[in-house]
Amino acid sequence: MEEKPERKRNNMAVLIIAFIAGVVIAALFRALKITVPVPHDLAGLVGLIGMFVGSMAVDIITKMMSK
Predict the structure, then answer these.
(1) Chain centroid, CA 50 distance in Å
(2) Are 20 and 46 found together in one domain?
(3) pLDDT digit string (tens) for 2-61?
(4) What is the domain range of residue 44?
């Protein structure tokens, strides 16, 4: 199932806005000398990705079981 071009643009816009917001927030934390609440190594990032995938899996399984 292919997404409509305008939906792809909207998805990309959301990603860009989220990235910019993350950069601004991280810069603000750093300027205020506050520890940035993100993992600082690869293992932490992999853990975050795992949490995201697990969350998506539960949503997919729940949707499949409700049909």
Answers:
(1) 12
(2) no
(3) 666 666 677 888 889 999 998 999 899 999 999 887 777 888 888 888 999 999 999 999
(4) 39-67
**3-state secondary structure (DSSP) of residue 30:** helix
CA 43 to chain centre: 16
**How far are the Cα atoms of 25, 42, 48, 53, 64 from residue 20, in angstroms, in the given order?**
9, 21, 19, 23, 35
Task: Write the single-letter amino acid at 35.
Answer: T
Candidates 51, 50, 48; CA nearest to 40 is 48
Token representation of residue 44: 């932490």
20, 58, 26: which is closest to 40 by C-alpha? 26
